[in-house]
Design a protein that fits this description.
The protein is an all-alpha fold and about 350 residues long. The protein has 15 helices and no strands.
């Protein structure tokens, strides 16, 4: 079921999950300068207009379509021309899909009470929003109950983001100034290994995947992950790529870091219980200490200081944090439910063999 591999620059084209993602893939695999691309773009527009009224955050077809479109701003896709990245026709159609995803976030996110535009107040609000609870969680299941096969599934699900860990948040760096910029660069410097290539977190995660007998090529397991996993990644890309969502991507990062240290400790405990190798555990051990520091920097010096600089962004900061908790919670709950019911959390027919 699981094979090893080596990293490649771009991901393989995934299998379509419906007419929308199928139309996106058809567009990307044509030459933008060819007249055939006009026909493919028209078919994509029709697929968008005829999309069934499903919940966007759990819609496999929509989330894959949006993920593949966003991927053109990262490493791209095999067979897709780099010219598609900023093709105005495709960007216009992507905006329609983004609007659907964004509206779903607005409908589902429960907004907390807004703090004052003060670094200490914003940090306090973020810590309250992300405070650990005593109820069931995916990390607790992994620590005490998960099997080795469950753990491999968890690594596969995480690979969609973690093999390019930190990249979506880095879009914010050129849009920040002063204290918030310095704070984000401080966090990202750790994420990118502090000048040591072997300590880059994405590289450490790839090593963990190999240690668990999995393929570490970026996007190798894309066909196997459900819509909620893609929705988590797409939310980061939406906030990161759009300058108007600067507050949201900073709030997202704060919540992301503030909910990482304790779960990483639990996952590391579960990995040791299951006798996984040090290469697998090392990635999670790294995040126990690193994210305990990062959460303070992200809450106070990034999100909090940004709120002081630009008070109008307080709502967006808190929205981004709440959206992070929402989409990551949906993905975690779906995994826990699958395991509790004795089935795989992956799209089993699409797991690479």
């Amino acid at each position: 079921m699981f094979v090893k591999g080596t990293d490649t620059r771009s991901m393989h084209a995934p299998a379509p999950r419906g007419p929308l993602s199928g139309a996106v893939l058809d567009v990307l695999l044509t030459d933008p300068a060819d007249t055939d691309s006009d026909d493919s773009l028209r078919l994509l527009k029709s697929a968008i207009d005829e999309r069934p009224p499903r919940d966007p955050l759990t819609d496999d077809d929509l989330q894959l379509a949006l993920f593949v479109l966003y991927e053109q701003h990262y490493t791209g896709m095999d067979g897709a021309s780099e010219e598609w990245e900023w093709d105005a026709r495709l960007i216009a159609l992507r905006r329609e899909l983004e609007d659907v995803h964004e509206q779903a976030l607005h409908e589902h996110v429960s907004m907390p009470t807004l703090p004052k535009a003060d670094a200490a107040d914003v940090a306090e609000a973020l810590f309250a929003l992300t405070a650990p609870h005593s109820g069931p969680s995916l990390a607790r299941v992994i620590a005490s109950e998960a099997t080795a096969e469950h753990m491999r599934e968890h690594l596969i699900l995480r690979s969609i983001y973690t093999l390019k860990e930190a990249d979506p948040h880095s879009w914010a760096i050129p849009r920040l100034r002063g204290r918030p910029k310095a704070a984000l660069v401080e966090v990202q410097t750790d994420e990118y290994g502090g000048g040591r290539p072997e300590r880059v977190h994405a590289t450490m995660f790839a090593r963990a995947m190999r240690g668990a007998g999995l393929d570490d090529r970026y996007g190798f397991y894309l066909d196997a992950v459900p819509a909620t996993t893609l929705a988590s990644m797409n939310t980061m890309s939406l906030f990161g790529l759009h300058r108007r969502w600067l507050g949201a991507i900073c709030g997202h990062l704060a919540a992301f870091e503030m909910t990482s240290s304790l779960p990483s400790r639990m996952i590391a405990s579960g990995l040791r219980r299951l006798d996984f190798s040090d290469d697998v555990v090392a990635y999670f051990d790294e995040h126990v200490e690193a994210d305990a520091v990062h959460e303070q920097v992200a809450a106070r010096d990034l999100a909090g200081a940004l709120a002081e600089q630009q008070p109008a962004l307080v709502r967006d900061i808190m929205f981004g944090a709440a959206a992070c908790l929402l989409v990551d919670g949906l993905a975690a709950d779906e995994t826990r439910l699958a395991w509790r019911q004795g089935r795989s959390a992956l799209r089993e027919t699409a797991v690479p063999a």
